[in-house]
Write a structure and sequence with these properties.
Layout: E1 2-4, E2 7-9, E3 12-18, H1 23-27, E4 29-30, H2 40-56, E5 62-65, H3 69-81, E6 87-89, E7 104-105, H4 106-112, H5 115-121, H6 133-150, E8 155-160, H7 162-174, E9 190-195, E10 200-206
Parallel strand pairs: 3-8, 5-6, 5-8
Antiparallel strand pairs: 1-2, 3-9, 4-7, 9-10
Helix pairs in contact: 2-3, 6-7
Length: 234
């Protein structure tokens, strides 16, 4: 709860959803802003996710989504289970734009292109044709804060990407995007964030609905493994 003038406003709750699996996820490649759809398993993950959200989060008032196909497919499957919710597209929720480096593996980005080393040294560094971490951080945090302000006191479902969610949580909770590796998220999983004056993570990497379907953690490079659910106290 926060105070605006003489009025107390309840915190918004953002249900932050990572899209279902894509072929690039299954292959261990970082797709960035490339626009690919879901695999057959990604569709099943989204369906299982939608059933859980309809059962446990039916009081949500809206769905927001990145317009990239993998996120939009996931959002539309959720909306089919919650047909009373309007679906809004937000270009500022798209994944970090890797430019010409999209489609490379984590190892290649880390060891050969030295992406994170370069970004740590210069927040305005951008891959060829891509975006800088400073621009990425500003747009995703601004997007989530604006959604929360528009829906003050409400619960909202936000469908986006692993990099967006992990980096936003690191920035909002720690004030430092370098903590993004602490917020790894499986395909088709979600986290719940209370967006008040001091954002609080209510739960992280919710995956119980994926027990039969399986999923890949964002930073995993090997074959799919059952994702582990982690809870964080407010």
């Amino acid at each position: 709860m926060r105070k605006r003038g003489a009025i107390f406003i309840m915190d918004s709750q953002l249900v932050l959803v990572r899209h279902g699996e894509t072929a690039a996820n299954a292959a261990g490649l970082w797709q960035g802003a490339e626009d690919k759809g879901l695999t057959a398993r990604g569709v099943r993950q989204a369906q299982a996710l939608a059933q859980r959200l309809a059962s446990e989060y039916s009081t949500a008032t809206a769905i927001y989504s990145s317009p990239l196909n993998r996120a939009l497919q996931t959002a539309k499957i959720i909306q089919a289970a919650l047909p009373h919710l309007p679906l809004h597209l937000r270009p500022d929720l798209v994944e970090y734009d890797l430019g010409d480096w999209a489609g490379l593996s984590f190892a290649t980005l880390k060891d050969e292109r030295r992406l994170w080393e370069r970004m740590a040294a210069d927040p305005d560094f951008a891959p060829p044709g891509g975006e800088s971490p400073r621009h990425f951080a500003r747009r995703i945090v601004a997007a989530l804060r604006e959604i929360a302000n528009v829906h003050a006191g409400d619960m909202v479902i936000v469908v986006s990407h692993g990099g967006v969610i992990a980096t936003a949580l690191a920035l909002l909770i720690h004030g430092d995007g370098s903590h993004w590796t602490e917020y790894d998220l499986a395909n088709g999983a979600f986290s719940v964030l209370a967006m008040g004056e001091q954002p609080r993570l209510l739960s992280h990497n919710e995956t119980a609905h994926l027990a039969e379907v399986g999923s890949i953690m964002w930073t995993e490079q090997d074959n799919a493994q059952p994702a582990k659910e982690k809870d964080t106290c407010p």
